[in-house]
Amino acid sequence: MAARRCDSALVTGANRGIGLELVRQLAEAPRPPSLIFAGCRDPAGPRAKDLKDLAEKHSNLVTIIRLDTSDPESIRQAAGEAGSRLAGRGLDLLINNAGVNTPGQLRDTGMKDMVDVFVTNTVGPLLVTKDFLPYLQRAASQPGSGVGVAGTTPLVINVSTLLSSMEKCPETFSMAPMYSYRASKAALNMLTRCLAEEFKKDGIVVTAIHPGWVKTDMGGPKAPVAVVDSAKGMLRVISTLTDKHSGMLLDWEGSSIPW
Ligand code: NDP
């Protein structure tokens, strides 16, 4: 039986930074997915301009969908819209990329900072995965899908960070205290583990990936990794994933990061 390939993808937070570059590289791949959903919370706003230009350039491949990952109703509507466009096909790749950071030290971190960051970085990926699950399951049930063969199994990628690692905390804490951000991504790692267990029966792989310290609005100008290289590395790692990597935290070069 011929192996399946990634034919449909959704990237959340796709209007700038790593998300935008992931969509660009997916669209410009030699064998691109035929349906790339670019999630964006404000497609009509000024921050969506680069994404709109990209979607216009690849209008046969890229579809912008309004998706605010901190708003359950927006997620539900986005899933409905994607479902109509998939028209019976499954979703092969979901990249939960949208994220926020408040670089607060302990004295600057209050309840609102903790809750707001958790809503976007932890709750959002859970709700998006839940509402898109029927399409991931549909992809898993298609002929040629197999968890042991890289590139054929539906994937959920949660974009995490080295800063989520408890073991690495003594090395990373002083340069980036970021209480709310670290805690929200550590919780995202646990969701990754739980979803990996739950989706074993479905043949869906769930992996967390650290994109590197990347030159974006969030990473800042001093970051050593160019967004092009981060996205390229992530997509290469994604293309190698099998059930062996489900529930793991990997970096953009494929190395495992301890919890
Ligand atoms: P940016 O700040 O450059 O971009 C963040 C993206 O997420 C934007 O498109 C933003 O949209 C979107 N977003 C934020 N909140 C929401 C929401 N509620 N709904 C939908 N979209 C939302 O960040 P990066 O590209 O650098 O980061 C992408 C991911 O990589 C994040 O999860 C981040 O935590 C992770 N990461 C980044 C690192 C780095 O060094 N850059 C290091 C480790 C991890 P909008 O324009 O509307 O705000």
From TrEMBL:
It holds the Pfam family adh_short. GO terms for cellular component: cytoplasm. It comes from the Eukaryota. GO terms for molecular function: oxidoreductase activity. Belongs to the short-chain dehydrogenases/reductases (SDR) family. This is C-factor. It comes from Megalops atlanticus (Tarpon).
